[in-house]
Recover the amino acids of this structure.
């Protein structure tokens, strides 16, 4: 059985499968489109919210260094993603890469993991978007009925109609086509980046040098009975002491990592890219560099505008301008955040549907979902199914506690992809690679170590929930996927390979 569980799908066969007329996606994306997608999904709730949290609780003005540390960890993973996406330009991202290098069961595990990651990410962002919209409506004197608003902390039954409606509208856009999605994303990203640049430029004139003293706050006394081994404490008990100093920077990095989630979604669009060998590395690495630079500048400006001990946790950027006597900027930032979150939601939904589509095309999920729309050439069936399910999830479920599952799912994917690069270099050195991860195996090993370190810093309950989801995935694979796999059917002679 072990040989069947770890059977790999040849890269050539994966590429041939993309050419089957009923299962072929339209190639319409350029390097610019991919970069815009990356920036569109990365810049979201993280930068608008997490800056105040980590500055106040962990790193102070050195929050900028925490963003650098998290950006470096993502850059290590991005180099591995870039090699795979240019070598195996097939929908599915880490799932497809794992199938080509590690085998069918690992591929299923990572695909199942990505379905959870993108679903929860989409729902969480949709609920966050709804909150921003309701805040803007309240400012204008329009009050949303409690039964139709956000349910976080509510005592009565309710349905977040705005969150659900957003997901359904974005589902329709994704069904119509990738080029339309790219155009809408470009417009929204332009608005979002403008807001971030306004924060940087306007805030630079309001900086007070005294707020940077000390730049790295000294360590504060740890809570009674705790040690400084915060990763182990957090893994065991679900909490960690609020460390400052150098350790505080690394603890903050594990938190602000959420702000970087999304660049890996770019890889899911490899099959719909005109020239993936050239454009995928540019889109993945370019979007990450742009966002890391903006994050560092924003954190420097905000901690310079207001002392880190006084920063707001809920809306640090907007409230920092209010505290300095510029409330107009606060409203502008809230508007930009609300608009910007639409692209985050759409691209996360895009990533999930492409992973689901790739798994169904391989037979690990019902093949019914692998047929593309005859006119739009998009995977409309999984898009509609997942869009409706996520709309219901976002409407009924307060997802604050589940948001950490998005982090662990992404980090797990990073580990698998990095290991896959090393294995595929050994097993298939003959493959043409238009982009090669430098210093293999050093870079992939560093990527694995960095991702594991950040995973250890996540709460224990996150690990428990992740384990439950993975156990359910094993059950589905052994009851359905293993026996319906197209690769298995081809090995048994029941289906001919694509030619």
């Amino acid at each position: 059985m072990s040989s069947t569980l770890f059977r790999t799908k040849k890269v050539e066969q994966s590429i041939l499968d993309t050419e089957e007329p009923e299962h072929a996606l339209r190639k319409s994306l350029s390097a610019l489109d991919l970069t815009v997608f990356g920036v569109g999904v990365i810049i979201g709730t993280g930068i608008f919210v997490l800056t105040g949290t980590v500055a106040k609780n962990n790193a102070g003005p050195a929050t900028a260094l925490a963003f650098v540390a998290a950006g470096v960890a993502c850059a290590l993973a991005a180099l591995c993603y870039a090699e795979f996406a240019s070598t195996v330009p097939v929908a599915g991202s880490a799932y497809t890469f794992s199938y080509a290098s590690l085998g069918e069961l690992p591929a299923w595990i990572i695909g199942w993991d990505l379905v959870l990651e993108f679903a929860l990410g989409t729902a969480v962002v949709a609920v966050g978007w709804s909150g921003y919209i309701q805040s803007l409506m309240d400012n204008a004197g329009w009050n949303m009925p409690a039964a139709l608003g956000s349910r976080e902390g509510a005592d009565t039954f309710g349905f977040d109609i705005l969150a659900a409606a957003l997901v359904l509208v974005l589902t329709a856009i994704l069904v119509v086509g990738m080029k339309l999605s790219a155009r809408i994303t470009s417009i929204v990203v332009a608005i979002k980046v403008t807001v971030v640049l306004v924060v940087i430029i306007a805030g630079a004139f309001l900086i007070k040098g005294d707020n940077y003293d000390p730049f790295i706050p000294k360590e504060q006394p740890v809570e009674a009975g705790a040690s400084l081994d915060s990763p182990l404490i957090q893994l065991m008990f679900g909490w960690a002491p609020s460390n400052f100093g150098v350790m505080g920077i690394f603890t903050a990095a594990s938190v602000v990592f959420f702000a970087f989630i999304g660049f890996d979604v770019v890889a899911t669009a490899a099959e719909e890219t005109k020239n993936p060998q050239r454009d995928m590395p540019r889109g993945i690495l370019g979007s990450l560099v742009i966002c890391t630079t903006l994050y560092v500048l924003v954190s420097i400006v905000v901690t310079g505008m207001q002392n880190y001990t006084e920063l707001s946790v809920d809306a640090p950027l907007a409230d920092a301008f209010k505290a300095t006597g510029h409330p107009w900027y606060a409203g502008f930032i809230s508007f930009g955040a609300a608009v910007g979150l639409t692209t985050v939601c759409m691209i996360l939904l895009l990533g999930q549907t492409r992973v689901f589509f790739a798994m169904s095309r391989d037979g690990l999920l019902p093949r019914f979902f692998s047929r593309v729309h005859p006119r739009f050439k998009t995977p409309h069936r999984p898009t509609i199914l997942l869009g409706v399910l996520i709309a219901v999830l976002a409407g009924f479920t307060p997802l604050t506690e589940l948001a950490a599952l998005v982090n662990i799912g992404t980090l797990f994917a990073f580990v698998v992809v990095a290991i896959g690069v090393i294995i595929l270099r050994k097993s298939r050195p003959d493959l043409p690679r238009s982009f090669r991860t430098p210093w293999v195996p050093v870079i992939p090993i560093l990527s694995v170590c960095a991702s594991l370190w950040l995973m250890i810093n996540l709460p224990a309950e996150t690990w428990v929930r992740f384990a439950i989801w993975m156990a359910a995935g094993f059950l589905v694979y052994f009851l359905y996927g293993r026996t319906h796999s197209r690769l298995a059917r081809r090995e048994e002679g029941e289906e001919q390979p694509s030619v």
Summary: Residues 151-155, 221-242 have pLDDT under 50 and may be disordered. The CA atoms of residues 238 and 460 lie 4 Å apart. The first helix runs from residue 2 to 5. The radius of gyration is 22 Å.
